[in-house]
Structure formats: C-alpha cells, structure tokens
From TrEMBL, chain B:
E.C. no: 1.5.3.1
Presence of keyword Repeat: no
UniProt GO molecular function: sarcosine oxidase activity
A Pfam entry, by short name: SoxG
Alphabetical UniProt keywords: Oxidoreductase
Disordered: annotated segments: 1-26
Protein name: Sarcosine oxidase subunit gamma
Amino acid sequence: MMSSSNPNRLNASVRSGRIDRTRVVNCTVDGTTVQGRPGDTLASALLASGTIEVGSSVHRGRPRGILTADCTEPNALVQRLDGCPEPMLAATEIELYEGLEARTLSGVGWLSGERDTARYDKKFVHSDVVVVGAGPAGMAASLAAARSGARVILIDQHRELGGMLLDGQSHISGHPATEWVGRAARELAENQNVRVLTRSAVLGCYDHNYLLVAERRTDHLPTSSGAATRQRLWHVRTGQLVLATGAHERPLVFADNDRPGVMLASAVRSYLNRHAVLPGRNAVVFTTSDSAYTTALDLLSSGARVPAIVDTRPDPPARLVEQARAAGAQVYPGAAVVATEGAPRISAVRIRGLDTGGALNGSPVDVSCDLLAVCGGWNPAVQLFAQSGGTVRWDPVVAGFVPLNTGGRSTRVVGAARGTYDLAGCLAQGFAAGAEAATVAGFRIAPPPVPQVDGDRPGARPRPVWAVPDESRPPEACTDHFVDLQRDATVADIHAATETGMRSVQHVKRYTTISTGVEQGKNSGVNAIGVLAETLAANSPGEVGTTTFRPPYTPVPIALFAGRTHGSLYDPVRTTPMHSRHEQAGAVFEDVGQWKRPRYYPRSGEDMHSAVLRECAAARTGVAIQDVSTLGRIEVVGSDAPTFLDRVYTNGFANLPVGRARYGMMCGADGMVLDDGVSMRLAEDRYLMSTTTGGAAKVLDWLEEWLQTEWPELDVYCTSVTEQWAAVAVVGPDSRTVVGRLAPDLDVSAESFGFMRFRETVLGNGTPARVARVSFSGELAFEINVAGWYGRALWDAAMAAGADLDITPYGTETMHVLRAEKGFVIVGQDTDGTVTPLDLGMDWAVSRRKDFIGKRSLSRPEMLREDRKQLVGLLPVDTDTLLPEGAHLVEPDASRRPPVPMLGHVTSSYHSAALGRTFALGLVSRGQERVGEVLRSPVDGSDIEVEITTPVLYDPEGVRRDGPAQG
Amino acid sequence: MTVLHRVETDLAEADTATAAPRHSPLEHRGAEFERATALGPRGVRLREEPFLTQLNLRVPPDDAVSEAVAEALDLTPPAANKVSGDEGRALLWLGPDEWLLVAEEERARGALRAVRSAQQDASGSSVDVSANRTTLRLAGPAAREVLEKVCSLDLHPRAFSVGDCAQTLLGRTVAVLWQVGPDPEYRVLVRCSFAEYLADLLLDAMAEFLEG
C-alpha cells in the first residue's frame, strides 16, 4: 500500500527500508508540507512524496532534480529557514525532523542577518587507531583494531554504520549484511576503548595524522532542542589511520543530461533499499560498469519496469546480461544514451550504438521512461588521503584515481577508497589493515578470518565515456552536455578554456568554475578531467592529473571553528584583586592588553575631562591612590643576576645597593626602546624587576631568550610573579601621612626613607608588605606591595587611612597626565619601536662604561644623525586647544603642496590641571635644538600653532618628590 | 636595614597576627560552582582550593643539588611530568630545571627556608608564588570529558593519570594540570588574574553534563 502523502513509498513487504513507518514527520519545502518518516532525508521524503524536481539551475534557469543520495549532490541545495537560516545545504544530507522548513535554491543561498545562537564547541582527543568510514571495509578495520585493546575511533558521516551495505541486499555468512552490521556496531559500542562518531565528517587530514572532524549532534532534531551543542569540532590525533572512505559514483555527460529524473544508479539503490522509496516506475539504466546492473535488478524487484539497460561496453558480463534479461530488462550493449526528452521531468531517452572508437553508430531507439539511472563509473574518495600528503595515480582497470601507496607507515587505505569494490575484498582489506594498524600501534593482533560472502565477485572492467558525442553538434558546441550541474558548466565550456590556450586542469577549473561548488569536485571533478583529457588528446585522465584536494571535505559553518571562543570566552579578561572595589567606585575601565584597568572614576555628573582634572588635582595637592597591580613582576635570582641586569638594562644595576630601587630601560638589539620599569634589589643575588603592564610576557620571553640562547653560562633564573603581588601607588603631598598610618612600624620621614628606597614591614592590619618610594608623577609617592590575596584589604585600609584627607582613586588617564607633565614617557605611546633612549633625552639612563643589549646599535651612523626625532614638550599657543595625538608638525612656512616635509608628530596630549592649560609630548626632528620655536600642526583644514619646549613642564627642579617639609 | 623577605610566605608567619582578610580570586563564585555540580555517572563538580602554598623552585639538573633540595622538603625529586609526594605536600615537575612545591599551608611551614638553605652554595632559585596562582579542583566521572573540551593534551588514563602533571593551555590561559585522583580528580593551578576566565571556561564546558 502506498499512502497518499507518500505515493512512492514502497510497501514494507517489498522493501522494509531503514525508516520508522509508525511515525510521520512533517516538514515544509517551498511553503508546501512534505511528509516523511523518521529515517528519511529531506531528499528521500521529497521523492516519497512524488517530487524529484528542485531549484532551477543558477545561470541558465534549467529545471533540475535530485541527482544523488549523498554529499556529492549538486542540484538539491536548500536554504534551511527554521532556526538560524543556513544556506546551501544538500537535501540528500538533511535528516528529516519535525518542523524543518526549507526553500529550494537556484545555486545561491543567503547568509542570515540573525545571530546564530546555536552552541558549537570543540573536543580534543587522541587515539591509537582512527578509522574513517563505516562501510564494510571500515567496520572490519575497526573490529580488528578494537579487539587488540587499542584505542579506536570510528568516524562516519551518516547516522547509522554500514555504508553501502545499507543500500543493498548483500549477504554475509548466509545472513543479510545488515545483521552483520548490527552485530559489529554492538561490539564496537560495548568496547570502552572504542569511540564511534556518527553524523561526523572528517573535514581535514593533516600532517602526523591530525584530523579535524565535524560532528552534527542536533541537526537531526527539531530546532527547539535547546542548549545542547549543535555541532562539535573534534581535534583528533592518532598514531595510525585507516581510510575507508569509499567511492562516489560519477554521473554521465550527454546531451540534456541535467533533466529532472536523471539520477545516479547508486542513489536509486539507496532510495530503494535504505528509504523504501521508488524514485521512478519506468527506469532506463545507463552504465559504464557492472554496478548499475544491481540497481536494475533492485528496481525490477521493487515493481518498477526497466525497459532498457544501456551499457557502453560492447561485451558486458554474460551472467549480468542473463540476470537482467531474466528479470525483464532489455540490455543494449555497446550503446549510449544520446538525448533525453521531458517537460521538465524526463519522459524518454534516445539510445544509439557507440563504436569502439567512441563514435555513434546505428539507428536511434527511443525509449520512454520516468527515471534514468546513470553510472559513469566510480571515484575512490581519495580526498583525505591526498590532503594528508598522499599521491594518486590513474588506474585504467578501475577507471579512477587511486592512492599510489595504500599502506604507508601510519596511513592505510582500504576498500572502495582504493578501488576495491567487491565486498569480500573490502572485508579482507579492512580486517588486515585494522590488525596491522593496531599492531604497529603496539597492540599486537592477527586479522580475523574473512566471513563467507554470497554472490559477490570482482567486477568486469568498466568502459568510461567522458562525453557521449552529440548526434549533430561538435564537442565545442555541446552547450547542453553538463559537467558541473551546480555551476551550469558544460563540455563546450571546457573547450572554450582550451581554446584560450589553457592546458592545466587547475587553470581550466578556475576558468570554467567546474568543481568550485559545494560538492568541490566530488561529482564533477573526474568527468571534467576526462573531458579535458579528450580535448587535449591526452592518453588518459592520469596525464591531466587532478586539482588539489583541500579541506574542508564537506562544507561546515564558520561558527564551528569559533566554537566557544566568542563573547565572554573570546579572550581572558584579567582583573586585579581590587577589581570589585573599582567596580563599586564606578570606575570606567580601559583594556590594557588583556587587563581591565580603571581609566577614571567619574563622580555623578562628571565626564572624563572633569574627572581627570579632579583626580590630577588630588594627586598634586592632596593624596590619590592607584591600583598598580597589573605591572609585570619578574624575580631575577642567581649569583650572576647583577651581571645579567647590567646587560639587559641600558643603565647599571650591579652597583645598586640592596634595599634600593632604580629605574631601568631596556633596548632591543637594534637599540630601540623595548620596555622600562623600576627594579628593586632584594638581596645580593635577587632582584624584583617590574615591567610595563602590556610588556610583562614579552620581557620574560626576552630575558629567557638571552639566558637560554646566548648566555647559558649565567647563573640566573627568572620567575614571573606578576600576580603574586597586589600593589597600590599612594601619591601626593599627603601620601606620607596616609602611608604612615597604614604602616605604623615604618619611619616614613624623608630623612630615613629616601627616594628610590624600599622597606619591608608589617602593616597595621597585620599584612606583610614591601613599601617603595617611587614616583611616576613627580609627587611624593609610595608603592605598597602585598601578597595578592591581601590586595583588597590593602585598598580598603588605604582608603580608610586617607578618608579624612579625601583620598582619591585615580585611573590610567590621570596617571598619563601626571607623568606627561613630568616628561616621563610611556613605552608604546611615546615610543614606537623607532625611538632610542637618546632620542628621548634619557642619556642619563644609558651607561657608557658597560656593554648592554643594543649598545652597538646606538653608535651606528643612523643613530647619530642630528636630525633624528627627539622627545619634546609641546604647548599649543592657544592654551585651550588640545592637539590630537598623532597630529603632524610642520615648519610654519612649509608649502602645503604634498609632499609636505613632516618634522614630527604628537605622541601624548592632555589638559593639565596643574598647568592650567593643554600640553603635549611629541617627537620632533632636531627637537632639542628647537626649544622656543613655534611649529604648526595642520588639523582639520586649519593650523594649530605649537611652541616647542623641554619635555618636563611641571616642577622641573624636582622639589615635590620629597613632599612638603615636615613640621 | 630592615630584614628583607619578610613578605614571603613562610618567613612572614612568625609575625602574622593578620587581622586583614585574605581573599581568593574565586571566593565569590562558590555558590555558582555548587549549582553547576552534576551528579551521577556523568557527574562533575568544580570548586576552588584557595591559599595553597606554592614555591617555584629552579633546580639545575645536577643530581646532588636536586636531591638535596628534595630532601630538604622530605620529598623525592619528581620525574618528568610527574608529581612526587601527596596532595598535602608535593613537588610538581614543571620543566627540566623547574619544580613547583604545592602544599597545604600548615604543611609548608619552613619550606622556603629549608630550600634556600639546601641551595645555599649552588645555583638555582626559590620564589614564593603562593598568591600568584589559585587552584581549581575538578572532579567526577565526566571531569576528563570537560577538560577534553579545553585542553589538547591526551588525558586518557593510559597517557595521563594520578600523579601526572603538565603545564598546558586550557582554552586561552596557561595552567598547571595535576591529576590527584582516579575518579578522575584534577587540580588546576591558574594565575589569579586568569582565574575568572578559567572558571567561566570550565563552567561552560560542564553545562552539558548538568543538562543530561
């Protein structure tokens, strides 16, 4: 009985199929409801419902139909509309689910503007043996390997294991092959060393057996299936790899070969046996090899008529001809289909003889039909083999490109993937390869015996025909002989490419766009090579060769590669122990590398400008506090630590006494400023180096590089301790009072606690602390360091100790202004990799007595040029005008016709509360000589007049560093 | 001059009548970890083990020195990517000349002093890094599956088991991974500033088991 909604569904007594007949699944295609059964694909449900036609072709608008039953489909491409719309999915690959909504496409889909909320993630696993493909060869390999105790992963694209065994009616050991498949699947499932990934495509096969596998986990379920991972990208590393990737059937190229109703013979079998769907009732079979005879017999046993089997071979195997005739099919040996008719579905074919030279002969026979099952031969699926570095060769016996070596040191190819198409051969190769792979991986095992296989024997040699001649037109005019259906590319297009002089298959591919669609040549590639070989009068497709096989093997959403690495997991956000306090204080944060640092702390109604002016004023006139925990910290330990620091810093550190700190500058080997910071000498053999916030990791790498590659003899060890320390800078004339309250045991007077000294103490709250008198603002300032876990307590204690003095938290913006007023540079802001310490006027930090990294570069002629850019202060003549950072500086009388000679640029620019005006720092050619000159900065069509000054604009005498005199 | 190094863990203890509260980076997320616990045969749970004492030891590949250092700690020198000792006090191998002492605070007293004394005339270093990292504990039958989502190492019991450790990337942060129990049960030591990220990452990876 055939139900009204599924007129082409075979009765269970004819074909049970691998579907659940007790349930109905409803979906919508182009607005029309289509019913299917669990186990259907969208394509099989359409066929069951009587629909074979899909979207028309992309360029020529020709009607097209479902051609395949697998990932090689060029026609039945749809846009999924439910969930997050997804383009260009093959209907042959979509498992039917309730609520599926699809629209057929004419070669072009669309990306949705919607956010894809589905979950994609990754998994990293390792294995002894990976088997790709769960057809008979792959299952045999997995069984053999798994029985050894080795870790095995079996990967297959489909929902069920079995491969081609599910499409046919073979027998193993006297029972239907599907029973063998079921037993094998159970054995694998029960073995805890085996992982079976179904609905999983190996996208890429890389060096050292590194595989990327896309697993579709919920695509077969209704889209409401919630937060589960939709697709998972498996990163698989394996010692041994068995490729049992099977083969893809080729279509045939002849006039009007694109008509709906033309279908691969193997797809017809698959629909019949796997889905119990009869795609046509009156089917012509057109083949170049044995395999399509089985399709003819399956059609006949399903109740279809097969009025003709057209075989290009003049002498097909007699037993097949006998079988076909006995079942009611007429065989036309040495013949070809030369034309089709239909409006649009195929209604008739024309058959003519094909002589041994490939020319048409004899008189035409017209046969009516509603289905044309075609078999142009088989392409071993060598894509993954080739991706992993394998070479393919043309094998004239199997008429396909096969692996040159099937048994590499760690990669083995078995079954149809190497051109073995008989079941017994596939099982034997699989068992052998699985056992070998396990043995090589260290799990010795002998291959199991190959079971008896009924009625199966190696096929006779095929006779490929790359393009059936047209009845009237020469090849260059064969504009309806389609080679690539998705791209609407024909035999005539290949001729046009060679007419322009192209010979390489790579060029022809790109010129014609053949094999550039979603099937990536699985369907069209070898036919194009065959046609090209004939056009170029090559001896075989092997002379032409293949195009390059590249990942991904099948299309996947880009979101899969992102996995969970988006949104809050895109990149770590690093925070200090005081972060919650900054949040509570309403800080506006800035990203410094991966760190979140408070930029400023606006009070109600304040913008950044006014908040920064207030914070600066507090630091200059009262007391202010900044979280400086993000500074990089490296402990440098060892008897050679003084020597080492002398070499990496431009200034001396060996002579730094214990208990003191010193500002240090580092250069690259090119003499350019690399990083800077204050280092403390904790002991004779122990320094605590600080780096810039953004430079911490880079500096540690730099130190390790020199220690490990240049100076391994030095007894020095570097340990990153950035997070070990939480630190606050307490800044301003009142900072001494605050620190005195925080550290009652510490004598903080100017006399006993000098500048660039540090002390260890225990704070009033019991916290051990290291207190240093360092200043990045020119003000009296202390940096208090405690173990990270006391950071928040330190912050709270400091805020409490300074409450009556209106202690003011300040952020990076205020820090920038304060340091710029003093002419202190920020590496990376005022330097850009082309600036030397001398350019910055920091000669005092460059030792003349000792050697250091970059020293020789500093004496190169280029570094000694007098017109180098030098750090200067910049004062806009109009005291309210703020120079944009990056603005250029030119001579006042410079012509404005490009190229305008550029003297320099602005590196930092701020409003200053202390100066009551705007100011900037910049790098200017001969800057030190130009102090007092007025230059111009062209900004937005007008000029800003700027006076050049020395960089230190505030407290040039440095009297504020020690704070107010104590009374 | 004031005595130096009082700020280091075991040298500070003598005068630490600390009134100040200590805070671990993930202390505010305990309830969230609790809620994320999945029970049963595919269960997994996460919690923070704060304030473990950690000393980064650089020990030159010289048997006499390394044995002296290990002996000072009453432990044996760890083999490559192995841990010697127990959860309460252990030496983790981090590199050819680098170990990490990880110990419960009460079992770490005097450790830094002992190591420095053993290292006195030899090259090497010992640095208190107790507050540099915090420790996450990931346990339960699905713990390995959770880590497999964020870690590219082979964590199969044949390749990584109790007493093994590795410095590796978890997602986008460096961490020290240490298997402490067969369930499996792992300690993950992470730099404090990356702790929130790692907690987010692991909770995200655990979600699938909670739903099941």
